[in-house]
Amino acid sequence: MAAPSEAKASGDADRPSSSNLYKEPSESFIWDANGYIIFCPCMGRFGNQADHYLGALGFAKALDRTLVLPPWRTYKNVPFNDWFKVEPVKEYHRVILAEDFMQHLAPEHWPPGQRFGWCWQAPSVKDKKCGMKQGNPFGPFWDGLNVDFDDYVFYDLTYEESYIDKWKSMYPPDKYPVMAFKGAPARFPVAQRHVKLHKYFQWSEAIEKEAQDYISKTFQGDSFIGIHLRNNVDWERACEHADGLPTYMASPQCLGYSGADRKVTVKMCFPPKEEILRLTKNILIKTRAKHIYVATDKNPMIKEIEDHLKPQKVKVHHLDPWLPQIDLAILGQADHTILNCISSFSAFVKRERDISDKPSSFWGFS
């Protein structure tokens, strides 16, 4: 079943890599004396990684270091430009693909013997251990870039704006040219100040084309709404702990960052069938859409939705794409989407739609 739970392996041996279809303009690779940041996007699946990517980009900008764009992590390393264009990111700050960095700059400027891994640890911890490559995905991620570490830097600073001057003074680039973080130097969910950076993450030509081809063929110019259903058993269990919390996972996308507006409910996290049918019908009537596109990690509820909306004569579609990012790209183009407030996968769609001023709603909230 498709993986807006981000659980499906995000790759396919029979599919061409979009990095083979999209080429960056030729460029010379000149060492940046201001230094570099690279990190392992190893905390969670795609939605979480995307949040961390935004924060890491903002952190690199604040430190005025070039961000080495690491590959996305699934069951393998996926080059950044397989899924997103690089040039738009450069409009915000200096970046370089990890593959280019390792091939053109690392052999001379960050050679074996001078590679330090960076790990956060509280000052009270005496027996400091980093574990940069311990376990999966950490080991396979760095192995995919042919990186081993010779020593470690332990720090206890946070990535908030108030600490930027300390970062610069304690870790100058002439002494620490490359900061290779075990995890992303960023918050989850993404900090409010970094949400706007999503506009620099634009789909690769390959993903955009596949999504647009499906939209054109399936909807043929008619309006459609998109819905994101998280209804596998693992998500249900996770939602059991959500009720009454001020924030949970990606909930700031609908509840706000203050934590004072409303509390998380199980209905927001794991909406019952009645809520799904109610809100879908309301949005359908409001938009007068002809089609519904369902992205889900388990049950698309096609029959239930079609039966409930027989008077509206709506057509319900479910692609189950080979790559979950196709679901995201399609949801981003819908006339209206209904999303899951707690899901970081939904949060990616919400940020993209906000940039284009497209309306979105949330289960148990709207």
TrEMBL record:
GO terms for molecular function: peptide-O-fucosyltransferase activity. It is an enzyme of class 2 (transferase). Keywords: Carbohydrate metabolism, Disulfide bond, Endoplasmic reticulum, Fucose metabolism, Glycoprotein, Glycosyltransferase, Notch signaling pathway, Transferase. The gene is LOC106162062. It catalyses: L-threonyl-[protein] + GDP-beta-L-fucose = 3-O-(alpha-L-fucosyl)-L-threonyl-[protein] + GDP + H(+); L-seryl-[protein] + GDP-beta-L-fucose = 3-O-(alpha-L-fucosyl)-L-seryl-[protein] + GDP + H(+). Belongs to the glycosyltransferase 65 family. It comes from Lingula anatina. It comes from the Eukaryota. GO terms for biological process: fucose metabolic process; Notch signaling pathway; regulation of Notch signaling pathway. CDD domains: O-FucT-1. This is GDP-fucose protein O-fucosyltransferase 1. Its main location: endoplasmic reticulum. Pathway: Protein modification; protein glycosylation. Pfam families: O-FucT. It is found in: Endoplasmic reticulum. GO terms for cellular component: endoplasmic reticulum. Its EC number is 2.4.1.221. InterPro entries: GDP-Fuc_O-FucTrfase, POFUT1. Residues 1-22 are annotated as: Disordered.
